[in-house]
Amino acid sequence: MHKSVESPAFSASIEDYALIGDQQSAALVARDGSIDWLCLPRFDSPACFAALLGDEHNGKWRIAPKGAGPCTRRAYRTDSLVLDSEWDTPEGTLRVTDLMPQRDSAPDLVRIVEGLRGRVTVRSAIRLRFDYGSIVPWMRRAEGHRVAVAGPDAVWLRSEPAVHTWGEDFCTHSEFTVGEGEKVAFVLTWHPSHQPRPPLVDPYESLHGSLAQWREWVSQCRYDGPFRDAVVRSLITLKALTYAPTGGIVAAPTTSLPEQLGGIRNWDYRYCWLRDSTLTLDALLSAGYHEEAADWRDWLLRAVAGDPADLQIMYGLSGERRLPEFELPWLPGFGDSVPVRIGNDAAKQLQLDVYGEVIDSLSLARCSGLPAKPHMWQVQRALMDFLCSAWRQPDEGLWEVRGGRRHFVYSKVMAWVAADRAVRTLENEPQLGGDLAGWRAMRDEVHREVCERGYDAERNTFTQFYGSRGLDASLLLIPRVGFLPPDDPRVIGTVDAVREELGRDGFVRRYSTDVAEVDGLPGDEGTFLVCSFWLADALHRLGRTEEARALFERLVGLCNDVGLLAEEYDPASDRFLGNYPQAFSHLGLVSTALALFGDQEAG
């Protein structure tokens, strides 16, 4: 009987993870060769490896040299999402290549072990735990494979060539030795337990095919300016976070990674937010990815179809509306940050800014030459008809605060954006039809009210909400959306005030958490990376391009060793916070790079 050999203690930080995925789900791979997070078959499915939010007993799969700790180095293969991790040991050098090939029918996870020097003994230990680490499956042998089954889930595990494998302590272990040039490939395949095993994939063909597909996709990128590697890595990450069957883009592939270690600000981000829509479309078009932009536009049209009064701030991967929020008490959370939440009750909130985001996105799609959809203008008209009266309501605002509704300034600004884009569209194409006079009147009224009630003349800055002295990083977008020109003294004052009052070590928080009743939650959070990119963009628009580029360079420097960004960053501890990798952060990187260094307009 072989006894388990414990690896050296390794406590991963968020930045210690790399991402692999197949555009329907994704896995996080730690520096020590452990896959600690994987949801199958979709991004929002229950995890079968959940050690990220617990420990090894909640599911993980580690492959590494026997007795070794974190890898010596790791990197993605050029222009791909194929990850290589290498260990230098006294016995030799070992490489583990991780990927999830684009699937035909079932999701596959491929791990190829290769000897590069000497002879290295390798250990694989896989603990499958379905339903977010709560269910230990029944494991058996079949057709020379290991098969794990529990409820609706079945997973097949095989190696080529076959290696010595045994079960111990509800874990499947393998141990083998590889010399220089020798390889052992593992393939893990999921399918519904009531269906037969799907066809086997060749791991080496999958590797070659994945590399070719990613590189062919990257070759379409139009950006050729400074920091191109960071821009390309961000675009690859955004592609990886796209749910291929529908075109929806998840905010992140994780749930409940904390905004404060040990705190309760832990949310499920495996859904598609409308607030990202214009930024997403603009970045994809500007970078040359018209097909992805069209897919996102089409997802948007399907998701928002229906009564405009029922527009949600977020939807499921296929446009699902019900995303009930509940907690998983058996998971201790990342860094003991509880609760671990599944679903997101913020989907029920009223956020008026999303009406502006949707109408702005559809207007951008029209101006950029994407193939028109016959019902697109009807959707915009319906949204405008609703917004003409609804814009006067208080709402929960862009950041989904849970402290009650207020008249958030950014929400009103985006109501102005909706009216402005609708007016411009109708002025250019009057045959479309619509209430041009009414929309113009609304646009003027919103603008006047925001400038009167949302502006603090004493401090020369717009505020977070009417009557507030607090600020909000979303105010940095006022010049970007065209509400006021960049050289307006009120814009300059706002940018300087946000930078001063919300700045932390040069980066920007979303808003102050000192006043608990604003967001209804205790504790603090880190600097919000997309807001820091917004600051760089705003400085550039104000003519402070040298400052903007210096800030952008600092932000790019926060990327971890494989080029990924989380939602937030804590300058005090030099650690990532929040869900990871975060689409919003990578969108900010791409968008700001294009603003600072690009020479091509969207479309």
Task: Explain this structure.
- By secondary structure, this protein is α+β, with helices and mostly antiparallel strands.
- It folds into two domains: 14-216, Distorted Sandwich (Beta-galactosidase, Chain A, domain 5); 220-600, Alpha/alpha barrel (Glycosyltransferase).
- Helix content is 31%, strand content 22%.
- The protein is built from 15 helices and 28 strands.
- The protein has a 15-stranded antiparallel β-sheet that branches.
- A hairpin with a 2-residue loop joins strand 7 and strand 8.
- Helix 3 packs antiparallel against helix 15, helix 8 (409-428) runs antiparallel to helix 9 and helix 14 (545-556) runs antiparallel to helix 15.
- The protein starts with 17 loop residues before the first strand and ends in a 6-residue tail after the last helix.
Provide a short characterization of the protein structure:
The chain is an alpha+beta fold and 603 residues long.
Please render the helix and strand layout as text.
Elements: E1 18-21, E2 26-29, E3 34-39, E4 47-49, E5 60-65, E6 73-76, E7 83-89, E8 92-99, E9 108-127, H1 130-133, E10 138-142, E11 145-150, E12 153-160, E13 165-168, E14 171-179, E15 183-192, H2 203-218, H3 228-240, E16 242-243, E17 248-249, E18 272-273, H4 277-287, H5 290-304, E19 314-315, E20 326-327, E21 341-342, H6 353-367, H7 376-390, H8 409-428, H9 436-453, E22 455-456, E23 461-462, H10 478-481, H11 489-501, E24 503-504, E25 507-508, H12 516-519, E26 527-528, H13 529-541, H14 545-556, E27 568-570, E28 575-577, H15 583-597
Antiparallel strand pairs: 1-2, 2-3, 3-4, 3-5, 5-9, 6-7, 7-8, 8-9, 9-14, 9-15, 10-11, 11-12, 12-15, 13-14, 16-17, 18-19, 20-21, 22-23, 24-25, 26-27, 27-28
Helix pairs in contact: 3-15, 4-5, 4-6, 4-15, 5-6, 6-7, 6-8, 7-8, 8-9, 13-14, 13-15, 14-15
